[in-house]
Amino acid sequence: MALNSKEMALMIERMMDDKKAQDIIVLDVAEMTIVADEFVICSVRSTVQSRALCDYIEEKMDECHIPLKRLEGYREGCWIVMDYGDVIVHIFRQEEREFYSLERLWSEGDNMHVAAKA
């Protein structure tokens, strides 16, 4: 079963929540860029947690036969970008997230979904 970009983004959001990521949001950027339809953004406490979360997402997506197209920032672990085509995943250490403030740059009215904590 193929997932659309929104379904994929929400699945990744749940994965992030499973691994204790913080301040998870999904941004619908389809009307703003041709790069992707959705951004999934979260914060983590450390570079170790960012790499572990990246590994977990990649493993689970691979199990769903959804290939990772490109990965950037893994070695440094401060801002990891995972490209799944229509969905781009951003895993930030808190300091980098505050500095780059992607949600401020890309949010436009009602295009932001903030993850609800269970």
Reconstruct the topology from this structure.
Layout: H1 5-18, E1 22-28, E2 38-44, H2 47-63, E3 70-72, E4 79-83, E5 87-93, H3 94-100, H4 102-106, E6 112-114
Parallel strand pairs: 2-5
Antiparallel strand pairs: 1-2, 1-6, 3-4, 4-5
Protein model, in words:
36% of the residues lie in helices and 27% in strands. The chain is built from four helices and six strands; from the N terminus they run H-E-E-H-E-E-E-H-H-E. A six-stranded mixed β-sheet has the order 3-4-5-2-1-6. The termini are far apart. The mean pLDDT is 90.
Report the strand count: 6
Radius of gyration: 13 Å
Q: Profile the largest sheet.
A: 6 strands, mixed
Envelope shape: globular
Helix and strand run: HEEHEEEHHE
Total of DSSP H or I helical runs spanning 4+ residues:
4
Side by side, the strands of the main sheet go 3-4-5-2-1-6
**Low-confidence segments:** none
β-strand percent reads 25-35%
Helicity range of the residues? 25-40%
Structural class: alpha+beta
The average pLDDT score comes to: 90
Q: Report how far apart the termini are.
A: 27 Å
Core attributes:
118 residues, 6-stranded mixed sheet, alpha+beta, single chain, globular
What does this entry show, briefly?
The chain is built from 4 helices and 6 strands, in the order αββαβββααβ. The protein is α+β, with helices and mostly antiparallel strands and 118 residues long.
